[in-house]
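Our preliminary data section would be incomplete without showing what the modeling component actually yields. Below, a chain of 251 amino acids is followed by its predicted structure, encoded as tokens that our downstream tools consume directly.
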Amino acid sequence: MEEQKWKAQLDTYLDGELPSAEMKELDAHVRTCPSCAADIVDRLALRRSVQTAGKRYTPDAALRERVRKQIGSRRRFPWKGWLAAAASLAVLGIAGYIGLDIARVNLHRRQVLSEIADLHVAALASTNPVDVVSSDRHTVKPWFQGKVPFTFNLPELEGTDYTLLGGRMVYMRQIPGAELIYQIRKHHISVFIFPDNAVPGQLPTDSELRKEMAFTVDSWSDGGLRYLVIGDPEQEDVAKLAEMFRKAARG
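Predicted structure:
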């Protein structure tokens, strides 16, 4: 009976809509329950399939132009009102295209951040969240050599509350990247590193904290690489780890 209660909340958990206390309680349960962890992985796979299918049928500019012409051909304006009507249509058309572009960019950003959140949750729900298990950055970093098409630096953690748990290979648009998993107190933070061309350009190039599902996300671009830091601790904890990575990237 208790297990059914947890399973009934999994979709709400993935949407980040549970109260904070229940999110933490269910998060702790998922880490110790193979059945619920497997259900989460299945749900994430289904979401990704739906997102991929949806992208196949995005209307292009040619379709919008055909619809606009068909609508225009069915309307006739009196001669005296023609100029005013044309001006109104032009203004509405420009506003509409701008609105569509803004909405498209916002939707694309959310899709990318949602995929990153899915990867983070999938790793934590897995019984083997990392491919290389080590708290030593000098062990974890060399493991990625030859596996990802770039190099990166990891920050020194001595004297901080952060612990490196290890890393694993991940993919964005079929391009390999690195995921590093850190722990601070009882919370986990994932740091994703991809080549810039693996992540759509609609994301900002400068650091920007935001909420995605129940997580805080920080994202920036530096030296041809895209960094995304995501986790459920306090925003300050995510921001501090992100700043440590920015300093490490600068050498």
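Residues 37 and 125 are 5 Å apart (CA to CA). Helices lie at 2-8, 10-14, 20-32, 34-55, 61-73, 82-125, 137-143, 235-249. Preliminary results of this kind motivate Aim 1 of the renewal.
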